[in-house]
Amino acid sequence: MHYQHDKSGTRLPISLDPTSNGEYCPIPLTAAERKSNRLALDIAAGNARKLNLERRQFLVSLSGAASSLLAMNTAFAARGLTGGYFQLPPESQLDTDAAYSALGKREFIFDVQGHYVPPSIAAERKAECVDKAEPVTREYMACLGADDFIKDVFLDSDTDMMVLSFVPSEAENEPLTIQEAAATREIVAKMENSRARLLLHGRVNPNQDGDIQRMDELAENYGVVAWKCYTQWGPDGNGFYLTDDVGIEFVENARRLGVKNIAIHKGIPFGPRSYEHSRCVDIGPIAKRFPDVNFLIYHSGWVPGQPEGPYDPEREEGLDGLINSVKNAGLGKHSNVYAELGSTWRGLMRDPDSAAHGLSKLIMHLGEDNILWGTDSIWYGSPQDQILAFRSFQISDQLQTSYGYQAITDQIRAKIFGLNAVKPYKINMTEILQHADADGISAAQADYRNQPDPHYLTRGPKTRRDFLQLLKMSGNGP
């Protein structure tokens, strides 16, 4: 089965499953992950009986989430994976106050990488999709309407704001156009002044004819807050570096238009042909050349399936590749380069050792102010499982001592969850929070909390077969 559930259809609140974002082949669950899921279901059944609740009622509570995270600790430790862990008091499994103290919302959460599908397509296909048992195709993704997006992001998670991003594509074959993205923003905005909740990227493939010229329209007509590009993609199958002539022209045009945030997909290679340009070797040099531009490195150079270990100054892949590019350019901490965690954290949280090394390396070498929260949702369903896992994750004492890592404090979490993104995106926190307290999303959240009904579904491909099917539908591109 594609989802982690028992025979009655129960799904866990923390999604340990092989789902990918459609840009990489799903990675099957390890023995430790399968054991964690089984243990979490068993614990949930027992705890529900103790509290005289249905198992579904228990799993919807924060104690249900705490039980899943503590089960992960047990399963991972049994396999010797103890570099990181989820720091929760044992009583949080049964005590709602203890669970809320550990996992309850307390941060401003600004997710800088969200994805969605066209509402125009969703409306006409919605009824047809209801009965589909296996949501693995791009057609199914197209069924998801604005109500699904709002529920996943703003009702079933603690997310306060999101940036709606884009995937690489030829201009005439965009799965989500800027017009449709703007329409989605307007749907959210109509919920009683909720416009500030959703911001827009502008997709630019500098190596595609007309894209650089089109930037003027994106800036003037759609109010984009950043540009999204994929250096490993091109209409002819060839990528580029930002230090190439076409990359420099792109950055200079962004400066001219006054939208000085450039979000760059790095890592998650689309295949052998794109591998070279998926590396971060151009990031340090381009950031040094343009110090007034913010370079937001989506996925932080992470390569699915490759473990993250201690910092390696010779490595050109993964998170080390990004760190080395920045350091070799003489930029160091607190530069104009930001590491973003979309898909990266979701992959790392399946391996507590990689998670501990990965997060710690970024904090140590780029700085705790230069890491941005992103989830790549709604490919992974609601981002709440990622939020709860990050909210409770901690670095082991052993790794702190051995490598000079620091503990993840509440202050560091708050920065990564949202405060760091305030600077490049020029967010007025006071104004945003005032609006959020009284807008339509806030009202919907208050009503929804009386009877929450999260689905705990993930939406992307979950097997190699699913991935190849999606790849074929996408013209053998991401």
**What integer is the average pLDDT?**
86
Distance between the termini: 24 Å
Q: Give the amount of beta strand, in percent.
A: 5-15%
Biggest sheet, open or closed, and with what strands and sense?
8 strands, parallel
Question: Key features?
Answer:
two-stranded antiparallel ribbon, globular, TIM Barrel, eight-stranded parallel beta sheet, alpha/beta
Question: What would your notes on this structure say?
Answer:
With 478 residues, the chain is of the alpha/beta class. The chain has a domain at 110-438: Alpha-Beta Barrel (TIM Barrel), CATH 3.20.20. The protein has 21 helices and 10 strands. The protein has helices spanning 31-50, 55-60, 62-78, 96-103, 119-129, 138-141, 146-155, 178-189, 211-222, 245-257, 275-278, 283-289, 318-328, 344-348, 352-365, 384-392, 397-403, 410-425, 429-438, 440-448, 464-473; strands spanning 84-86, 110-114, 161-164, 198-203, 226-230, 261-265, 294-298, 337-340, 371-372, 393-395. The strands form 2 sheets. An 8-stranded parallel beta sheet has the order 2-3-4-5-6-7-8-9, sandwiched between helices. A two-stranded antiparallel ribbon has the order 1-10. Helix 3 (62-78) crosses helix 4 (96-103) and helix 13 (318-328) runs parallel beside helix 15 (352-365). The longest helix is centred in the N-terminal third of the chain and has 20 residues, at 31-50. The radius of gyration is 21 Å and the shape is globular.
